[in-house]
Amino acid sequence: MAKKSKKPAKARKPAKAGGKSRAKPAAKKPATKRSSAKVVKLPARKAAKKTATNGKAAKSALPAPSKKPFGQAGKALDGVRILDFTHVQSGPTCTQLLAWFGADVIKVERPGVGDITRGQLVDVKGADSLYFTMLNHNKRSITIDSKHPQGKRVLNELIKKCDVLVENFAPGALDRMGLTWEHIHKLNPRMIVASVKGFGPGPYEDCKVYENVAQCTGGAASTTGFRDGVPLVTGAQIGDSGTGLHLALGIVTALYQRTQTGRGQKVLAAMQDAVLNLCRVKLRDQQRLERGPLKEYPQYPNGAFGDTVPRAGNASGGGQPGWILKCKGWETDPNAYIYFITQAPVWAKICDVIGKPEWITDPDYATPAARLPRLKDIFATVEEWTMTKTKFEVMEILNKYDIPCGPILSMKELAEDQSLRETGTIVEVDHPTRGKYLTVGNPIKLSDSPTEVTRSPLLGEHTDEILREVLGFDERRISEVRDSGALGLVVPRMAAE
Ligand code: CAO
Fold it and tell me: Tell me: the pLDDT tens digits for 289-321?
């Protein structure tokens, strides 16, 4: 584990980061290629023979396979150490994922204040907010004033010991701390420096950006909502968490490339780019629009199309027309609805289920093309049927016939869903100052690297531990740094558990 390993990122040693097992074969590859062009296939054959003769694994660059059952041999990112300068949501989402995959994430926070979300939307007086706790699991926290001369020295030492620096400060803030790419790269040429920014290079590159700004500038808001209504933002945090996910992929990709190049690189995920990537199908529709009306949109056939992709209400984004339909109880329950898709291969079954068998052969309904101008009426007819049943009854009936559909689930229903608890997608976590709370666990399941969700750190909880274990400071040195004020005021620390 990274926590125990003293030298995770020593220059030239093949990446602990990429994982020992991956670093070596990757480094071998070019050599094999080169040699096969000339002569040397012999050593490989020899090794194979030895294996066969001795019945033992030949000594090779590959590590022996683990004898432990899946998931007990360590985590995917064991040995990777992250210097985490992230705050609010986008960056913390990224580093939380990396922590769940086994990276040692050291969150650097401003003394006395910490990540601003610790104190935002507070629901339990004196405890870190759910906003903070739900985005910072499995991390360690160190408080350092990055503008204090001693603080800068400590950060320089940490840079030498870490594999990745992740930040989502406003543009220029990291440079103003003196942590320029050149400075970092000189201290640790293997370090990957990963950033979230609102925009990529261009006219808006210096702007500060929050979630909904990204949804608006990335194309989501202009395409969300009803045709005559205002643009809408979505509940899914595609600007923040969506960009954090993109950044995490960039980081592991850079770690993999480092196993071959031996050097770090800069990784940038701009929120506008990430949202636009998630709105890819809308750019598809923009180009289709130039060739005629978008026939699966509710504007067709009677509404007018302009020169830009309109808001499509609840129409399905793909070639499978869908809509949200009322179910039993809709008059009082705001979520008594189901998403219903008229998938072409099951059209006959749909007709049977809703009591319209004549539509199976009626030329006005029999083909997807014939149905497109009649979707509004078709969904109205289906709704007459769905309104006679609860959303779960509709789901049960339609699933028997492989008709794609999905009930509109409230957050309450999701929080209480047993199957999500069993898969670790909804997790209950205990916290020393707030008690038990629910969180969303790791949505990405790796069979060899299961996730255990542990609580978020208290502000500065691991400051001494990190100085001691990661930097090798003795008590005298720790006191010196502390007395300098670089770690903030000495406050009585809370018990960890
Ligand atoms: N010690 C000393 N100073 C510290 C510090 C530490 N440990 N950690 C942070 N600071 C300082 C920074 O150096 C910066 O100071 P300067 O402006 O003097 O250089 C200051 O704290 C604040 O940083 P900021 O400008 O990033 O913070 P903000 O609250 O004003 O802006 C945000 C927040 C999110 C709008 C901005 O960081 C941003 O645009 N980030 C990039 C896009 C992004 O990630 N947005 C998603 C946020 S989640 O919705």
Answer: 999 999 989 999 888 899 999 999 999 877 799
Residues 189, 190, 193: CA angle, nearest 5 degrees = 90
- Give distance in angstroms: CA of 172 to centre of ligand 1: 9
Task: Give one word for 24, left, alpha or beta, with left for phi > 0 and alpha for psi -120 to 50.
Answer: alpha
Q: Does the pLDDT value for residue 441 go beyond 90?
A: yes
Going by pLDDT thresholds of 50, 70 and 90, the confidence category of residue 61 is: low
Give residue 335 CA to ligand 1 midpoint distance, Å.
Answer: 38
Provide, rounded to the nearest whole percent, the portion of the chain with pLDDT above 90.
80
Terminal Cα-to-Cα distance of the chain (whole angstroms):
21
Structure tokens at 368: 């997807």
Coil/strand/helix, residue 268: strand
| pLDDT (tens digit per residue) in 143-176 | 999 999 999 999 999 999 999 999 999 999 999 9
For ligand 1, whether the C-beta of 58 sits within 6 Å is no
> What's the confidence (pLDDT) of residue 494?
52
Give burial (CB, 10 Å; 0-12/13-18/19+) of 94.
buried
Percent of the chain with pLDDT strictly greater than 70? 85
Q: How many residues does the chain have?
A: 497
Alpha carbons 385 and 396: distance in angstroms, whole number: 14
The structure tokens listed for 47 are: 């090794």
Contacts of residue 162, defined as CB under 8 A and 6 or more positions apart, other chains included, come to 8, 9, 81, 82, 83, 106, 188, 191
Q: Is position 240 annotated as part of the catalytic site? A: yes
453 lines ligand 1 (CB under 6 A): no
Residue 4: CB within 6 Å of ligand 1? no
CA distance 184 to 303: 57
d(CA 488, CA 146): 11
